[in-house]
Structures are given as C-alpha cells and as structure tokens.
Amino acid sequence: MRKIHIEKNTVQETLVIPLYARMLCTKQYPNLFQDTRAADMMAQMDYDFSELEQKGKGIMYRFGALETAMRQYDLAWEVRDYLKNHPRAAVVNLGCGLDLTGESCDNGSCKIYNLDFPDVIALREQLLPKMDRVRNLPVDLNDTTWFEQIDASGGVVFFAAGVFYYFQTTQVKTLFSKMARRFPGGRLVFDAAGKKAVRLMIQSWVRSLGISDVDAYFYVNDPERDLKPWVSNAAVLARGYMLGYNDLSDPAVSGFFRFLSRVADGMMKMRILRLDFCG
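Below the sequence we write its predicted structure tokens.
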C-alpha cells in the first residue's frame, strides 16, 4: 500500500501531533481511553515519527497527551448525553482534523458531519473510508453559510476540540450568537481556558505569526459572565477539563498527573463548556 506523504511545516503536519497523542494514550491508559484507529492512520502515513517518539518519553509531553485524551472523552460524553433524547440529531465536529469522536458516538440513526478547511478534509478522506450517514464538509467555520448544509431537523449537537484558542474573541462571539439564533434546541460543547493559560499556550507561536495583540484571542475566565451576553437564549454549563467527567483514579495515572490535573482545572481555568440553545 502506498503511504500518504506528510510534508513538514504544513497544516497537515499539525494534525499528526494530536493523532500521536491519542495513540500514546490508547497504549498508556487503555481503561480510560481508546482510539484504535489513530495507530491505523499513522501506519498509512509517510512521516518520520521519531521526533514525537522522543518527545513522548518526556513527562510533560505525556501529560499533554493525557489532556488530549481527556478532552475527547469529555466531548464524547456530552455528545452521547444529547443523543439520548435526540437519537436522530446531527452530530457536528467543528475543526475536525483527523478526530473520530463523532463516528465513535454513532448510535445508528444520527447524522455525522466533519467540518474543516479543504486541505484537512482532503487528507481525512485519503486516510479514512467513507461511512454511512457521515459527511465531510470543506468549510471556513467563520463563513456561516455552512449552516445550510446541516440537517438539524432531529436536533443538533456541535462540538469543538482545541479549536477556539486560535480564534479571536470577536470571531467566537459572532459565531456563537449566530448558532444560538439558527439552531434553537441545539447544543454546543467545546474546551476553553482562562486568560493566563491561553497566554501560555500561544506564546510559542505568537512571534512566528506576527501577532501583536495576544489579548484579542478567546479565553474564558467566568463562563456565565463572559458568554451569557453573547447567547442570552442559552443555558451555560461548565465542568473541569481534566477532572470534571472522570476522577482519573485509574492506577495507570500517577499522583503527579492528578496534581497537574487539579492545577489545570483550577488555576488555569481549563474547562469543558456547554451551551444549550433554548428553543
């Protein structure tokens, strides 16, 4: 089988990092997280994983991988919770990359949509076979004409993993307010962090992108206060990113990682946020 070449320093390469993290956590924490297809996708790639393998030996990299896994665990929990009462809903993965959370939540009757930029969708379709009730849409999330392609007649649950950190606050405000008006009865679930954490996250790429106004990027210090003015018709709920859905009591998770998880959820204000749009 001919492998798919992944160029260095491209958007496609950025998709490899969370993919490797999910594979790593599937091996290290099998009782907490399973993404068996991550390794299958990696096997199809013509890419030198040696640098990631070396980084994967470091304690902070492994904690970052655990963060990636717990984020997917949390978002999947919320999607499945919505599907309990809306079994024929649209499940919409915003900025999907190579993530298969939507497919993993398939109940046999929902409709699954994966949205991302055209080059990302092109790679996704090379790596993954077509599935019934799954549509891959090459879009810019900020161009909300994509709303028209979502069949929300049975309800709709949107989710986004690690996406909105790269959006400016004004962009997120516009997107959320439009979604709340267009999809009453729907749900939006995403991860966010406080101002301090976001500044730490983006400082490594600020210089390369020429960003001067770091504070323009989306962060959430107080979910109710920060988000409610944008979506007055929505209920705002928040849980800890690392410990809000799972106490990480699995013996494979070290005490030090549980300590770091408390810091992430506490001081760093890392959360899973849920907006339920009132109908």
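The chain has one domain: 71-277.
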